[in-house]
Amino acid sequence: MSEEVEWWEYDDAAEMAAAVAGDIGFIIESALDARGAAVIALAGGKTPVPIYETLAAAKLDWKRVTIIPSDERIVPLGDPLSNVTVLAKHFLPKGARVMPIVPNALPDYKAAGGSADALMQDLHWPLDLCLLGVGADGHTASIFPGPDLDEALAGPKERRALGVMPDPMPADAPVPRVTLSLAAITTARALMIAVTGKDKRKVIEAGIKQGKASALPIGRVLASTELPVDIHWAP
Ligand SMILES: O=C1O[C@H](COP(=O)(O)O)[C@@H](O)[C@H](O)[C@H]1O
């Protein structure tokens, strides 16, 4: 269990975006200073978009930054549901290397997960940062409650990614997914969460309270990391 879960509260999403973008910029700069390169995983979905708009305006040596999505919906590149497409829109023009993790031609979610995992073996590990979002059902990245939960949580520690079939499907993006594994997430050098709304706050609080026994993926992730975790929240 993370010994230090710290909540950061903001008046609105714009204020949260400025603070989180500032923290991510600092983490990237520190990695560039230490190693000459940075590898970060950024959350998909709608909540972090204002963060990416602010972060993309930061003066950083983007050419040395690799960005992967924390998870991907299995849809073609350019599809409105594609997480990497949102990241590419913001960070490719800056010169960052934005890496799609789902091959266009792989409709089978297990094969897509295996392919993402193979692709990720070539990256520098651990990640310098993993920024996570949380769904109202407690999913984080694409680790969902349901049949694939145990596989996502308990796989071999060298496995970085896997394919999952959410069951039930989330209404806003009802498609199979590829997600970073628990091991890939919890071994990152820094772990942050950014969410908005009272419902998600309640879900996270419930997950933290339930700890290792939680049926909520976010509870299990937080119970499995030793890292200090910053949870950024706006109404
Ligand atoms: O499906 C997903 O959902 C979560 C939360 O998304 P949001 O739109 O409610 O912010 C997200 O973190 C994850 O990356 C995404 O694929």
TrEMBL record:
Residue ranges spanning the membrane: these are none
Enumerate the UniProt keywords alphabetically: Hydrolase
Its pathway is:
Carbohydrate degradation; pentose phosphate pathway; D-ribulose 5-phosphate from D-glucose 6-phosphate (oxidative stage): step 2/3
Q: What class of enzyme is it?
A: hydrolase
Instruction: Give an example GO biological process.
Output: pentose-phosphate shunt
Recorded hits in Gene3D superfamilies, A to Z, give: 3.40.50.1360
- CDD domains per record: 6PGL (cd01400)
Keyword Secreted set for record: no
Q: Where is the Glucosamine/galactosamine-6-phosphate isomerase domain?
A: 12-224
Q: Which reaction does this chain catalyze? A: 6-phospho-D-glucono-1,5-lactone + H2O = 6-phospho-D-gluconate + H(+)
Short name of any one Pfam family annotated for the protein: Glucosamine_iso
Extract one GO molecular function annotation from the record.
Answer: 6-phosphogluconolactonase activity
Q: Per its UniProt record, what InterPro entries does this chain match?
A: 6-phosphogluconolactonase_DevB (IPR005900), 6PGL (IPR039104), Glc/Gal-6P_isomerase (IPR006148), NagB/RpiA_transferase-like (IPR037171)
Q: What is its EC number?
A: 3.1.1.31
Family indicated by similarity? Belongs to the glucosamine/galactosamine-6-phosphate isomerase family. 6-phosphogluconolactonase subfamily.
Please give the function described in this protein's UniProt entry. Answer: Hydrolysis of 6-phosphogluconolactone to 6-phosphogluconate.
Family annotation (PANTHER family): 6-PHOSPHOGLUCONOLACTONASE
This chain belongs to the protein called 6-phosphogluconolactonase
Organism per entry: Novosphingobium chloroacetimidivorans
Q: What is the lineage of its organism?
A: Bacteria, Pseudomonadati, Pseudomonadota, Alphaproteobacteria, Sphingomonadales
